[in-house]
Amino acid sequence: MQFQQLAYFVAVAEARHFTRAAEEVHVSQPSLSQQIKALERELGAELFSRARGNIALTDAGEALLPLARRILADADTARHEVQELVQLRRGRIRLGATPSLCTGLLPDALRAFHDLHPGIQLLLEEGGSHDLVRQLARGALDLALVALPLPAASPALTTVELLNEDLVVVSSAAGPEPGRKGRVRISDLQGEPLVMFRHGYDLRELTVAACRAEGFEPSFTVEGGEMDAVLGFVRAGLGVAVVPSMVANRAGHDLRTTPLAAPGLRRTIALAHRSDVAPPRAARELQRMLLGRGQGPAAG
């Protein structure tokens, strides 16, 4: 079994078409087909069913696909690790982060890292913690900033706490202030129109769980947005939203920030990577920098 054969297999599995897959990997279609057949002979099973021009994975192909992706990702990581030069003059980091951290923590941190190591390519994947954990597991990310606790069925990951952060309520500065005396209790959100993030956002799950703990279901005026969209809907007066304090601090004067009354809501952000594979050197250096900047409380 060769890496090239696995790469051709993954290309066909994703394209569901031999000719398009051959174009993707820059090889002739007959050569790609021959390599796939050689792989099938070695494994002793057909990987694709080819009925009336439709390409579909067989059961054996379905079983091989995640393993092939993992093998190729690990090989790619090893190749980049070896290619890195002294003093991090070259390399790349595949970093995952939640949208709120992309807005709040990362811009200044990545600028500082880039100033020190301009030859390192930074590839950023934005998503909820559940999505990022899956990306880490399949080897598509070197490092990710995720909210703790991790999903119950998470793969083996190593996590280091980075920061604890207060959550606050943002509302349109042109509308009435929610809550009383400059504070919002969770119970005050009952009946309050909420702008809510899409499923998979940690902030959505945390807010909904807090409301249910107070004995009510939150009422959504708009749901399904990303961070920028949620803030835009709040500015337009469609409702209020619960967001991290670091996002609210950067949101602008057209949004009002109101703290949550004690005990409030807080979230813990951690740096995570696969336990069975050490991050590349560049990712380890970025991790060191982020820990130096982020550890400790981030009060609202």
Q: What does the model show?
A:
The chain is α/β, with parallel strands linked by helices. The protein has eleven helices and twelve strands. Strands 3, 4, 5, 6, 9, 10, 11 and 12 form an eight-stranded mixed β-sheet that branches. Helix 8 links the parallel strand 7 and strand 8. Helix 1 packs across helix 4 and helix 2 packs across helix 3. The C terminus is likely disordered.
Short description:
It is built from eleven helices and twelve strands. It has 300 residues and is α/β, with parallel strands linked by helices.
Q: Provide the succession of SSEs.
A: HHHEEHEHHEHEEEHEHEHEEHE
Count of helix runs: 11
Helix and strand content put the structural class at alpha/beta
In terms of DSSP E residues, the strand content is: 25-35%
> Percent of residues in helical segments?
40-55%
Give the biggest beta sheet. Answer: 8 strands, mixed
What's the pLDDT, averaged over the residues? 88
Detail the poorly predicted runs: 296-300
Distance between the termini: 54 Å
Number of strands: 12
Gross geometry:
elongated
SSE layout and pairing:
Layout: H1 3-15, H2 18-24, H3 29-43, E1 48-51, E2 54-57, H4 59-83, E3 91-97, H5 99-103, H6 106-116, E4 120-126, H7 129-137, E5 143-148, E6 157-172, E7 193-197, H8 202-213, E8 219-225, H9 227-235, E9 241-244, H10 245-248, E10 255-259, E11 266-274, H11 281-294, E12 297-298
Parallel strand pairs: 3-4, 3-5, 6-12, 7-8
Antiparallel strand pairs: 1-2, 5-11, 6-9, 6-10, 6-11
Helix pairs in contact: 1-2, 1-3, 1-4, 2-3
